[in-house]
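Suppose a colleague, Dr. K., hands you the sequence of a protein chain of 115 amino acids and asks what its three-dimensional shape might be. Before reaching for any lab equipment, you can write down a predicted structure in token form. Begin with the sequence itself:
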Amino acid sequence: MTQIHLGRNVLDHQLLDRDGRRCGNADDLAIEGGAGERAEVVAILVGPGYWAQRAGPLGRVAGRLGGSGRTRVPWSEVEKVTSAVVLGKRADELGLGRVDDRLQRYLARLPGADQ
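The predicted structure, expressed as tokens, is then:
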């Protein structure tokens, strides 16, 4: 079994779909396991709707600005963890990347964006 430091290698890291497309960040994790049981990561939680529960008042403000979108990516979809979290499916199959798609048309207008 491979050990991964969740705080250092997963939380707040970029998600890449199977084609290498950036499709969000790991905003939080869903962990299951009761008292005396082994804790297990079951999903990566993505979207501004999860920011408030992790970042307190600042997260609530950011969540209001970013919207309430929430996507739950099953941990079983994680192919590998490197400097990013690589997923086994395309972003659209997992319900990811919509914000990146909207931002892309604005980012493309920035000087030097075509380099």
